[in-house]
Amino acid sequence: MLGFTYRKEIYFLFAKDQSVRAEKTKEKTIELWKSGNLKEKDIEDFQSIATTYSEKDPTDPVAFHLIARSLFWNLYRIGIYFDHDSLILHLGSEFQDFIGSSVLADSTLDSVFWNARTAESFSSSPFYDWENNKVLLFLGETHRHVKRPQVLINEYGNLDRSKLSPEFQTVYIWLLTFNTMLAGDASGLDKLITITKDPSYKAGIQFTPREENFLRGLGKYYKKDYVGALSLLRQAKSNNPDRITETSIITEATIFHLQNLSQKGIDLLEEFYLSSGKKNAEIPILIAKMIVEKPGAKTKLDLTPEKKE
User: Fold this and answer.
1) Which sign, positive or negative, has the C-alpha torsion 215, 161, 75, 95?
2) Digit-coded pLDDT (tens) for 122-163
3) Contacts of 145 (CB under 8 A, 6+ apart)
4) Inter-residue contact 46 to 29 (CB < 8 Å)
């Protein structure tokens, strides 16, 4: 009996040592990231230490949170960044378009989600990194696309941002904006834009007046407020055929099609496609779809598929 007690004390002492080591590695990783010196080896070390911690104490929720957290850094390794440019570039797109067709990205996000979910299920009460774990769940849920955006906003939209670790501040605003726009939550978007203008706001994502119109316009489109969407998206367009202009025009044309003004939408798409150098191959596909759905509509584009040699 004495031997068993002794071994048990040694076991818990070793598990505690792993816990301290994992927490220190977590903080070191954050500091290296903040200074721009985070290397692949540092990420691999964090993942290894977090995994060892979970093996020594397989019911500790913090261990599984740290595994999820260490895996999160894989996204940076493969070039997936949650910043202002990636948000604006992918507003109006599916989340899968943002992460691309990378098998590693998909498997990483799945692993992040299930480890964060395991951490939550093992915890009888919130632990120190509870809010950070919620951000990882929010990320995983957005990727899984099982719950509607409005449901995700209801579940994760009111996290205490003051308790978020530096690397999750921007990720949280990115996910919140992306899902709020898809939900067509106009008041939610206004609230987010107001947050980004607060002097105490430090997440890094801020919007220009043009981007605000674009955001609000897409939000109204997803809410099926087409009159409001058209007004705002037209203000967001510019002579520069960038992503905002392109998405605004495609959305405007789609609204015309939904309003039984398909020819007007087709004409708009044709003009942009030709003036922008025929760069977006999806536009002729969209025009062809409109013509199929609206017999009598015409296009001056050659929609004959190119023959493969």
Assistant:
1) negative
2) 998 999 999 999 999 999 999 999 999 999 999 999 999 999
3) 94, 95, 96
4) yes
